[in-house]
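Chapter review. Work through the record for ADP-heptose:LPS heptosyltransferase before attempting the end-of-chapter questions.
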Amino acid sequence: MMTQCPEGDGGEPRLLVVRNDKIGDFMLAWPALACLKAAASAPRVSVLVPAYTAPLARQCPWIDEVLIDPGNASGRAGCRTLLQRLREARFDALLTLFSTPRIGWLGWRAGIPLRLAPATQWAQLFYNRRIVQRRSRSEKPEYVYNLELAEALLVELGLAVPPRPEPPYWPLPEGTRAVQRERITDELGLDGSRRWLFLHPGSGGSAVNLSLERYASLVLNIQARLAGASARAPAWVLTAGPGEEAAADSLRERLAGEGITAVLLPPRHGLDDFALSLSACDLLIAGSTGPLHIAGCLDRPTAGFYPSRRSATPLRWRTCNAEAHRLAFCPPPGAGEHNMDSIDLEAAASRIADLLRHLPSHETIS
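Structure tokens for ADP-heptose:LPS heptosyltransferase:
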């Protein structure tokens, strides 16, 4: 049953979107946020996110307001405070992209009239609109599942569903990439005319990843293939999240022992500053973790390494950049789901080098 779209104080519906888990999950919500914001009614879009992804949310052009979810650890006092904030906001609709009983209960208690979420376990009891998706089958990319939920919400509100947005889902102001490259050039002395290949060897504990030894082997293989094609050697930049600096430095030393110079990206002033730095790369190599999905949202070329676990397939957690900008690798059929050593690094290096050779010049030189 379709619900007539209510009007806020400014005539626009007030929507609250919840994606309060990890960085990569949140970045894969940006296509859905872009879809909602493109509706003809120009809805006011608020998001509920944890404090650590809030800096990214404040950079998102499709978000009007950022609310902080204090999480389960805040106890009853934090829950009461958040509930009061939701009541005061008088939201017309709640879209929960990843449903949990706590958030469902809060939306219900806040009196939000339209509450839509995936039909997931018993948390769905708090929602009056439920969409069956069966995400555990991993039949579609996560960002497509999110888009489908956003489109279903617009239908429930009686709003026309706009054409699906296209990459980049994080469009930067003109000149931002050039500014970031100039900044890194000043910091590290990199040659701006060379390809800059960023490699993020950490996983933040959220995904199975290649070992440092395997990443070093991958770099050697890529370097050899580019040299064999008479291409200029790329500049290698290693990135790290909090607590991952020692691993990145260890990889730098391993590469130096093989005659390859790699540099560490200097510390940044917060997650948003780090994310903007990724716009400077010509390609980012990483496991299925936050930086990979930030780069994808920026439509930078990516090469991702995934386990073969059904819930973590390259299809399910595909980056949301353009098809021509993404590569994905995982263990072959029959290998253990966590056996990242079974990935053919020579074949991966060949495909990465081929992608780099075929990128238009404007992709590699700012």
